[in-house]
Write a structure and sequence with these properties.
The protein has 273 residues and is α/β, with parallel strands linked by helices. It contains 9 helices and 10 strands. The strands form 2 sheets. An 8-stranded parallel barrel has the order 1-2-5-6-7-8-9-10, surrounded by 5 helices. Strands 3-4 form a two-stranded antiparallel ribbon.
């Protein structure tokens, strides 16, 4: 089974060092977040100044990975699509579209994001849920249109902590978006509290752009490394091979000390299925 690692697992390294490390350790894919020492742009749930991330510089970065045989399966954006200040939201969308331009320029097929959240108010708030859901729907429809314009896909990552908290709700959301350019980044750790492994694939298998490989205890707020939570990995990987063979599987929540060990856990689970 081929496995990748998100580039932000190695914030202490340059892009060249990350590419060499992944290639030398036998990894096939990365989710590129422009999070390295020589491209420090990634801001979770926010944005940064991309003015000096030129087309030429983006090409240099992405070709560095390809030079080592590591495929850039996605560019991770993860900005806030639920920003309530209209001017700030417009800036977030401009930031997002710039990542789409970079992806299209460099033949990267996917850009990815979560829903986003207002700090201190993450998750479903009864008094604002319908408004939040409609706001997210509006932004994703627009981003789906822009993704189609650039010839790429937008991958939305649902999570139990957000306004799209389950596999069924994600499938319902996609049906309302009505865009062939919007797909799903499935992180099973984000849905295990609401969905069984079978339910994730039942609702989302036709829509998957790629996977995050991480785990979670069902009552935890945050994720853990594969094998440290409540996911039945033998079952999940059997479903992966049955329904989504070859879709990129990219580790998250690992670091430079353990990423190979966690990869080996995945392979052991894969052998045990």
């Amino acid at each position: 089974m081929d496995i990748g690692v998100v580039s932000r697992s190695f914030p202490q390294l340059t892009n060249e060092e990350v590419a060499a490390l992944l290639a030398g350790s036998g990894f096939k894919w990365t989710e590129l977040c422009f999070s390295q020492t020589d491209s420090n742009y990634w801001r979770y749930n926010g944005r940064s100044d991309l003015s000096d991330l030129t087309d030429e510089r983006s090409r240099e970065i992405i070709e560095t990975y390809r030079k080592y045989g590591v495929e850039v399966a996605s560019i991770g954006v993860f900005t806030n699509l639920l920003e309530t200040d209209d001017a700030e939201l417009e800036e977030n969308l401009t930031y997002f579209e710039r990542h789409m331009q970079i992806a299209a320029l460099n033949s990267v097929p996917v850009v990815a994001t979560e829903c986003g959240f207002i700090p201190g108010k993450r998750g479903i708030q009864a008094e604002s849920y319908e408004k939040d859901f409609e706001r997210l729907l509006l932004q994703v429809r627009w981003l789906g249109e822009r993704a189609g314009h650039y010839g790429i896909k937008l991958a939305l990552e649902p999570c139990v902590l957000d306004v799209v908290p389950s596999a069924k709700r994600t499938a319902d959301f996609l049906a309302q978006v009505e865009s062939p350019h919007v797909q799903v980044l499935l992180d099973p750790a984000n849905l295990i509290a609401n969905n069984s492994e079978e339910e994730m694939f039942r609702y989302l298998a036709p829509h998957l752009a790629y996977f995050h490989g991480k785990d979670r205890k069902v009552n935890d707020t945050y994720g853990r490394c594969v094998g440290d939570g409540d996911i039945d990995w033998a079952k999940l990987l059997n479903l992966y091979h049955e329904h989504t063979e070859g879709v990129p599987f990219i580790l998250e929540y690992v670091n430079i000390q353990n990423f190979c060990d966690i990869r080996d856990r995945v392979l052991a689970f894969d052998q045990s299925r």
